[in-house]
Amino acid sequence: MPITLERVSYTYAAGTAFETAALDSVSLSIAGGEFVGLVGHTGCGKSTLVQLMAGLLRPTSGKVLLDGKDINLKGYRREELREKVGLLFQFPECQLFETTVERDVAFGLKHLPLSAEEKAERVRWALERTGFSFEQIRHQSPLGLSGGERRRIAIAGVLATRPQILILDEPVASLDPMGRRDFMELISRLNREGTTIVIISHNADILGEYAHRVLVLEQGKLCIDAPVKEVFQDTERLKTYHLAVSQPRHIARLLQQKGLPFPQDIVRYGDLLTGIKALVEGGRER
Amino acid sequence: MTEVKKAIITAVCMALCVVLPLAFHAVPNAGSIYLPMHIPVLLCGLICGWGYGLACGIVGPLLSSLFTGMPPAAVLPAMVIELAVYGVIAGLGMLLIRTKKVSADLYISLVLAMLTGRVVAGATRALIFAVGETTMATWATSYFITSLPGIVIQLILIPAIVIALERARLIPRRYPG
Amino acid sequence: MNRLPIGVYIPGASLLHRLDARAKLLSLIALVVALIYTGTAAGYGIMAALTAFLVFFAGLDLRTAFASVRRVVPFFLVIFLMNALFYDGGEALWSWWIFRPSTAGAIIGANVVLKLIFLMILFNILMSTTPPMKVTAALAALLQPLGYIGIPVNELALMISVAIQFIPTLMEETETIRKAQTARGAKFDSPRLRDKAQSIMPLVIPIFISAFRRADELATAMEARGYRGGKRRAARNTPLQGCDFAAMLVTTAICLVQIFAL
Asked: How far does B119 lie from chain C, in Å, by closest CA?
């Protein structure tokens, strides 16, 4: 299910003294099954962009097309959008409110045309996916759980709707390294199973490791839209946007500068390790 | 709860007196129907006691008027008195009523506060702010009929919020164990 | 709600910016009293001249000064019509069902609306030339006498200033929660009352939980730093300057003129 933006602009407080342009004529297209990273400075319009994709904001001008249909046209069924596009904010645990975990995870399913059994099955699936034992957790209050558990419950609440496009706004910013890895593994697995992922992150390592393609926004304009390996090759250009490359890319570059023959397209730790192994073995042979 | 914590909770409730009506603003007429400003004041009284409830009832609407122009200056004094009564009676209710069941304590205190507040508001309107314009009928209409959805919502919502806060361990349990 | 800019303060260095907040607050009170007693054309002339003078000295442009007034035009219209159509005294022009428009009613309505417009502009001048924190501090200073009858003025001032600091954060959080729940299928925009009523729980409960969580964190931090309440010393106020006294004198004079001379 492709999502396409056609010359989308968005202005906050249009027509008042506080008018500010958040997005300026952004055009892009994301195909089904892609894993796209979205980066840029604070206030560059990333959050505005994903909220436009999720239909939470209406563009001041331009179109947002989901599967070829304009989501802001009058006749468009919003339920369809909510079912297909899931959005996870930075602190999703803030959205919990129900008396039991089971009811909270089922909240997003309320308006979907599913039978009670299907809904129950999805809740179980989502909770197990996020690492809970369904029977143990279902009747507990989501509010009394620990911070990490509450976050996983909130994620389960978004997963339960089985979105075909999952948008994540800074999902790992406040997680510890372990939680970060677990979370990204979960997202990566969903992507391998066909879910389109759009992720906002400051973390270059995560983008290098998981994203196929990177979009760079600067002052409301889309200035880079390219595969991650290509984007991370141009360190100098990224610097002008106050962005860094991933650690493995950085290390590979330093080693290259020392005269070691490394391929140009290393962005992941795995690639770096393979490169080093090849070097060591090459050295041994010599 | 320590006095510091009660003071800060009261401050947050005052801030919510400004924020909640804005959150409800997307709904036309939400102000007079859902009465969003009553919720933090009643909660503050229930949780922190009558003194803090009083402070929240007076300062909350003043801040809201200061920052958002709602309520407009013309209705502000009557509203301050009404909300102050809510805060005080809700607090006194929780102080004096102990049925060993949280929800019963909450409901009794709430209903008491909501009734007293409306009676006092009607009386002040008749005697001070709108002399001659207020009759039993207009009072009953504006305080009970127009705001009936708000009253129902408050009766459902406020105990639910208190219980959610207890579950989240943000306020101590009234009857531990 | 992102259309409502919170904290209308506009930094600047005008004469009005430099006046002491307490002097500005007292002057505003004097002008509000003056406004209540204003009733003649000459009276309104004085108020209009003064307001124009203040807008000019505050370095505000008229668009900003009127921005808040424009937003409540429908409200003014309702007030005007209420008075014009339902006023009991005076001679009715015609009468049908509950409507009985009268010239006297229209005049009263126009008076009320005019006063409200002046009130809003004057209030805006204060708020756009004074940071909210200074308004609170001034309020605490003016409330100081209440301390003598046992009201904990310092605690009150602390609560008010903490509340003001929380407003922008809580607004942002409310907006995020609203969006997060919309993305999960809550229907806030639906015109159906049932949908709206149902969407209140998922909005309001998370707002309170996160607001109380923030309160909890702040209170814990304050206690950890040894704050016990009650012993907070009053904020030291700088003495009032000549221009502060001048401002209060002028506004009090206008107030007295409106009450007794016009």
From this structure: 25
The secondary structure of residue C102, as a DSSP letter, is B
Asked if A279 and A176 sit in the same domain, the reply is: no
Same domain, A286 and A145: no
Report how far residue A158's alpha carbon sits from residue C181's, in angstroms, rounded to the nearest whole number: 10
Q: Pick the residue from chain B with its C-alpha nearest to A141.
A: B167
Contact partners for chain C, using 3 or more CB pairs closer than 8 A, are A, B
Question: What tokens appear for C58 in the block?
Answer: 């505050």
- Domains of chain C: which residue ranges? 15-131+241-261, 153-224
- Kindly list the strands in the beta sheet with A85-88, ordered across the sheet, starting from the edge strand earlier in the chain: A85-88, A165-169, A196-200, A35-40, A213-218, A221-227
Domain range for A119: 34-56+77-228
Q: Determine the Cα angle at C171 with ends C141 and A106, to 5°.
A: 145
Q: Where are the domains of chain B?
A: 3-167
Structure confidence by residue, pLDDT tens digits, C34-68? 888 888 888 899 999 998 888 888 877 777 667 66
Q: What is the ipTM of this complex?
A: 0.89
Share of chain C above pLDDT 90, in %: 10
CATH number assigned to the domain comprising residue A201: 3.40.50.300
Closest CA to A40 of A196, A238, A230: A238
CATH fold label, B3-167: Arp2/3 complex 21 kDa subunit ARPC3 (1.10.1760)
Cβ-defined contact of C208 to B19 (cutoff 8 Å): no
Dihedrals phi, psi of C85, to nearest 5 degrees: -90, -25
Measured between CA atoms, the residue of chain B closest to residue C72 is B69
CA distance linking residue C39 with residue C64, whole number of Å? 27
| Closest C-alpha among A178, B73, B17 to residue C164 | B17
pLDDT for A124 = 95
